[in-house]
Amino acid sequence: MTKMELSRFKRAKVPPKELLTFYTTCIRPITEYARPVFYNGLPKYLSNELERLQKPALRIICPEVSYADALVTRNLIPLYERKNTLTVKFFNEITSNTNSKLYGLLPERCGVGSYEAVMGFD
What we know:
Elements: H1 2-11, H2 16-32, H3 44-61, H4 67-73, H5 79-95, H6 115-118
């Protein structure tokens, strides 16, 4: 779906900025659905498959540059890094809100600091 929809919009002369907006608001969230919850349960090969969705999307949006350059020029990060960021944000939001229904379900952090440190993202 990613490649087909973006290609269709590209042929319709939709500007690259709007193609990127479509990708980041309509396509990428599908790849990130419930990722913080299943962070460690996602096999590496599936994580790699998700990353492969972003590469052709950026090739369509900015065909004149490499994937790495497209990430920089469009102010994006690889999906695996975004996964880490979203996961840390998710757990830190839960632990900072004692009214969260998930607050009591998480283990104590034993003074280690943020979940970023616990999960090894530091």
